[in-house]
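note to self: dont lose this again. the chain is below, predicted strucutre after it. 409 aa total, dont forget to put it in the shared folder this time
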Amino acid sequence: MKDSIIILCGGGPAPGMNAVVCSVAKTFLNNGYRVIGLHGGYSGLFSKSPRTEDLDFFKADAYFNRGGSYLQMSRFKPTDADFENNFNLELFKDNNIKLLVTVGGDDTASTANRIAKFLEAKKYPIHNIHVPKTIDDDLPLPDNAPTFGFNSAKDEGAHIARTIYEDARTSGNWLLISAMGRSAGHLALGIGEATHCPMTIIPEMFNKVEISIDKIIKLTLSAIIKRQILGIGYGTVVVAEGVFHDLAADDIKAAGVHMTYDEHGHPELGKISKAVLFNELLEKEIKRLGLKVKTRPVEIGYDVRCQDPIAYDLSYCSELAMGVYELYSKGETGCMVYVNAFGEAKPLYLKDLQNSEGKIPPRRVDIEGGIARNYYKNLCHYITPADYEAAKAYVPDPEAYDFMKILGW
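---
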């Protein structure tokens, strides 16, 4: 029986999923392996009747440059009881599987490690190599290397935001954009920088003060008032969804926002549009101040996850896939594949990346680094002490809208 590899995709989609899976398939097929695709993410490994199919050249060649994921994904995360009672060890034995290739974020990587250790304990050791993906760009790859999918999502997000900015200019309105990014603001900042957005609000900005709804609204109004002073009656504001996830529950309640809470008492912000929430809170304050400003909400989220990958990600994902074969050929396991700027594949061992809880801490925006520093210094619009006198035409206390003072910078 031929040696086989099996590939699964976990978490949510990102542009380039198919490019990775199909490039892995082509590379291993070319080297004499059988390639098995597993649908349903990890749920397939804990099922008596997993949905699998062989990936041949023609299938891989037809799907490698498409958006979405040919292999159906899942956020299923096995429990200890699942390992003991439901793990399908026969799937590995009956198909002579030597390598588990997982495509996903940190949770997918951590579970791959658990499976490898479980199989080793069962005297059926296999290699496992993880391909890191997330449009949030928050996995700690060296040299600020992006995760695959990020640049394609940023490209489409910027395309949407450019259109939105033109709408704002044409109609003389302000459009409020919420962008994905639960743990970090890379995507929001990338969209904001690419579209010369006059204000982008990300969690990392609040490195010296506690985040609050009041500060989010004041940062937004700082940009609006500054542009009013400059004679510019329109604009966009991009806010990372993680800003709202970091808010204290009491702050949300005090703002009059009605929402459901999970079993731990945390607000379930994932069930509502952050752009709509942002817009409603801002409109209340605009009305209170008597400003003549119209705002509209726009959500950039699921519409950037399954688009066709741009050329950058098609090349990058192909290099990652070929890197999987190179690392496997060298006997590597328990690692993520990393490809540097020269196309050279290196292993990043999961044990070195995980914290004491077995999680990979997210890579956040370096708020004092060149990208953020230059954007906020040169492209953003906001109130400074030099604007106080002119700003009094719009608000009685301009100092409260001073960008640097709001953030304690």
